[in-house]
Design goal:
With 520 residues, the chain is of the alpha+beta class. It contains 10 helices and 13 strands.
């Protein structure tokens, strides 16, 4: 082997084999330092080893000492492999050229190489390792200064007084006793997913499943020149302001889904203003049944009332905080009549009857001021206004007087006969012109509804159209289901609210539009 560390090439550098050949006699003392120790020191210096180390021979035996057994020839250590260079093995671990240990088989030793002797772990030569982090190495010899950590056996018993490191714990794949508590991270995750006092979802309530499918089947027809008139099957929205949490949804009914008709209900949620002066409006409208433009009329009604409230939101917000009930009722009544009047004017422009292009309108005003818990409802038409308080539903829909009735004698044109059947005039069959004092009969208008209430902590206010109000009044199972689902400490999310409002009842297949407000 040459002093540059090159491998033997056959006939070159064979002095090492001749040195240990049994046929070669000792050369004896020479004029220069050419003893065995000198040659080994020269070879050790070439390989970077220090004389007297574990790899080299020890000091020369003193005179008179018993003869020592012949030691096997020392083989220089191999250079650090690829996996060793990533560890802090000393200043010489990653320096100097040399082959890197690859994944393939190691080269076979030459005739002058022998396997390195097995060394026992001594004091570490490199930097001290952290006892809490076990050293993991690939298969092969262990780097100097490290000792692989063996997993403790569960069946073995430790000797008395043996200290166990604080960082010692169960193995990753070790079996866990069945009665052991779950880790804290898993406990927190399960507690976050579990909602107390909330029953599982149900598909329907009542005596049996509804006739129609639970999911949409047919899309409504589309006009390529009026794609903006298309209505989505479901609309979902929500927000949180002050002490209230809002959830709003509008879903096409089972009947419309089966027949491929558009959703006649329309939903609008809007915020006007900023900060505590903001005002949240929830408007929902339902178009007339069996009319081609019912969904367009409902959407237009929500847009008109939204514009009217948005332009007057500052005054409305002040009246709500100041509890001016009379001003609120008269002002909102005027805005509602103006919006529905524009809807009738739109019907006249289209050349259709006002009864065919009309909609019922129901709205809810929520102030963003956390100090104000006044909730204002107003609207025209059928629907429902409910409140869930202390686990019981309350129907707080405002009652209005019936403006229709029988004719009164002496008011307007006189009747032809009395209630007893006596005729007051003789009918001679003569056609008479209309009296100028008779008023032109107009179609009766739905009465205006208004209610301002103060919410309590824990209340749930529900505003909905007839598609949800009718089954809620007619099927006790639906009220019980919503009570169990909405009586928790936290309001449901958007997906949960959608699921709750889609609980079906046989015999009720209209569109459902609802807005619920949870009070913190």
């Amino acid at each position: 082997m040459s002093q540059q560390g090159e491998k033997p090439t056959g006939h070159q550098d064979d002095w090492w084999g001749q040195l240990y050949d049994d046929s070669t006699e000792d050369t004896g003392p020479a004029a220069v330092a050419d003893s065995l120790d000198d040659r080994f020191a020269s070879a050790a210096g070439t390989m970077g080893l220090e004389p007297g180390s574990a790899a080299g021979p020890g000091p020369a035996p003193e005179s008179g000492a018993p003869p020592q057994p012949e030691r096997p020839p020392a083989v220089p250590e191999q250079r650090p492999g690829r996996w060793e260079r990533g560890n802090a093995l000393g200043p010489d671990a990653a320096s100097g050229p040399g082959p890197l240990a690859g994944p393939g088989p190691s080269p076979s030793p030459g005739p002058w190489q022998t396997p390195p002797p097995v060394r026992h772990a001594g004091p570490p030569q490199g930097p001290p390792a952290d006892p809490s982090v076990p050293a993991i190495f690939p298969p092969g010899p262990t780097p100097p200064g490290f000792r692989p950590q063996e997993p403790p056996s569960r069946t073995s018993t430790e000797s008395p007084g043996a200290a166990v490191p604080a960082s010692t714990g169960p193995l990753p794949n070790a079996p866990v006793p069945w009665d052991a508590p779950p880790p804290p991270a898993r406990q927190n995750r399960e507690a976050a997913l579990a909602v107390p006092n909330r029953p599982p979802d149900v598909g329907y309530v009542g005596s049996g499943p509804p006739t129609y499918d639970a999911e949409p089947t047919t899309l409504p027809p589309a006009d390529p020149d009026a794609l903006e008139d298309l209505v989505a099957d479901t609309v979902l929205d929500g927000a949180r302001y002050g002490t209230s949490t809002l959830r709003a949804v509008s879903v096409r009914g089972d009947s419309a889904r089966f027949r491929g008709e558009p959703r006649r209900d329309s939903l609008l949620t809007a915020r006007f203003g900023t900060g505590e002066q903001a005002l949240v409006l929830v408007a929902m409208a339902t178009g007339a049944r069996a009319t081609p433009g019912a969904h367009l009329a409902a959407a237009e009604a929500c847009q008109w009332i939204g514009r009217a409230v948005g332009r007057s939101h500052a005054r409305l917000s002040e009246d709500i905080r100041a509890a001016r009930r009379g001003d609120l009722k008269s002002g909102l009544h005027r805005l509602t009549d103006r919006s529905l009047g524009k809807l009738r004017a739109s019907a006249a422009e289209q050349g259709i009857e006002p009864e065919e292009y009309t909609a019922s309108l129901r709205c809810l005003l929520l102030p963003a001021d956390p100090e104000c818990r006044t909730r204002v409802f107003f609207g025209v038409g059928a629907g429902g206004l409910f409140r869930l308080r202390d686990g019981e539903w309350q129907d707080i829909e405002p009652r209005v007087a019936d403006v229709t009735g029988e004719a009164v004698v002496g008011f307007g044109s006189p009747p032809h006969e009395t209630p007893e059947g006596d005729r007051l005039t003789m009918d001679l069959g003569i056609t008479t012109p209309p009296s100028p004092y008779e008023a032109i009969a107009e179609p009766p208008r739905a009465p205006f509804r208004f209610r301002a209430s103060v919410a309590r902590p824990g209340d749930t206010l529900l505003l909905c159209t007839g598609g949800l109000a009718d089954p809620l009044r007619g099927e006790p199972g639906l009220a019980e289901q919503l009570t169990a689902r909405w009586s928790g400490a936290e309001p449901p999310g958007l997906a949960g609210f959608l699921t709750d409002t889609q609980v079906r009842v046989k015999g009720y297949a209209d569109d459902r539009t609802a807005a619920a407000v949870w009070e913190a």
